[in-house]
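User: Let's play a game. I give you a shape written as tokens, and you guess the letters that built it. Ready? Here's round one.
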């Protein structure tokens, strides 16, 4: 853990405290380390709405230990949240983050780019991945119950890697006007959108998030392949279930709920 003090970021909503670092291995790891420190002083909740933001990231990670290629100039941040709920409910926050990213893309591009959403945690522009979300939870050493969520967000603003298995893009590459946005311009916009969707989640509830997410889904009604380990399921996306699982209508007409896996378009 590196010592740092909160920075004032123009345009950031007042509810968030942003800690800026020049370079980190992973903003998620730093956020988890901050939580470990706070637990020693029984002070976890003091970190609610703290944001770890790094200008450079050397070992960004995705789900299942995958690598997140962190190209220079892109946004890397992790938001600490302590919602009053259990872990299953807190996993809905990845849909909250995706909606905030999609709003941010629309706003930052002057409505010229659309961030479409792909289950479970991707944001796409023109069917290429522009952002990823990694939720990690922390359990209290004493009670074992979840006491905080780290919402890691990587958004390709300036560049995207070409040597990964899925097509990728950035706001710069995808926009006709070749948008050049710095992460200190992007982060306040994302946090403002996140605050709105977080409030929607806490005050109205997941059904509203689910509806909005489905409205922006890239995959509704499309033939998909869902891969989990060695298992491959083929079918058509038929929506999100009440708890955020992916509903897939299989070729024989049976409908199944999938809680984890990777989705590929099958066309
Ligand atoms: C994700 O995982 O998409 C979550 C990525 C979260 C990264 C942020 S950055 C800030 C915070 N700190 C961290 O350490 N992590 C978070 P997953 O669904 O497993 O997708 C990973 C896959 O996306 C890789 O295996 C590649 O195929 C692809 N990929 C890697 N880097 C990419 C990039 N920059 N843009 C688009 N796709 C990428």
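Assistant: Ready! My guess for every position:
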């Amino acid at each position: 853990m590196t010592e740092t003090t909160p920075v004032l970021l123009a345009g950031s909503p007042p509810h968030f405290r942003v800690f800026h670092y020049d370079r980190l291995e992973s903003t998620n790891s730093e956020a988890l380390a901050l939580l470990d420190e706070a637990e020693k002083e029984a002070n976890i909740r003091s970190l609610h709405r703290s944001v770890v933001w790094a200008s450079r990231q050397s070992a960004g990670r995705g789900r299942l230990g995958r690598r997140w290629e962190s190209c220079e100039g892109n946004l890397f941040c992790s938001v600490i949240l302590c919602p009053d709920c259990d872990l299953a409910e807190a996993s809905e926050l990845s849909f909250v983050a995706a909606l905030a990213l999609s709003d941010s893309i629309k706003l930052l591009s002057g409505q010229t780019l659309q961030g479409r959403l792909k289950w479970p945690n991707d944001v796409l522009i023109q069917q290429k991945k522009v952002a990823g979300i990694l939720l990690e939870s922390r359990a209290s050493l004493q009670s074992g119950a979840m006491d905080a969520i780290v919402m890691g967000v990587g958004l390709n603003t300036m560049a995207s890697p070409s040597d990964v298995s899925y097509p990728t893009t950035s706001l710069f590459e995808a926009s006709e006007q070749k948008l050049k946005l710095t992460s200190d311009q992007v982060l306040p916009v994302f946090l403002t959108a996140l605050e709105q969707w977080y409030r929607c989640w806490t005050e109205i509830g997941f059904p509203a998030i689910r509806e909005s997410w489905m409205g922006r889904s890239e995959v509704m009604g499309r033939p998909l392949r869902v891969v989990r380990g060695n298992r491959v399921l083929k079918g058509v996306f038929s929506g999100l279930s009440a708890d955020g699982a992916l509903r897939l209508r299989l070729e024989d007409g049976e409908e199944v709920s999938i809680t984890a896996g990777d989705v590929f378009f099958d066309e």
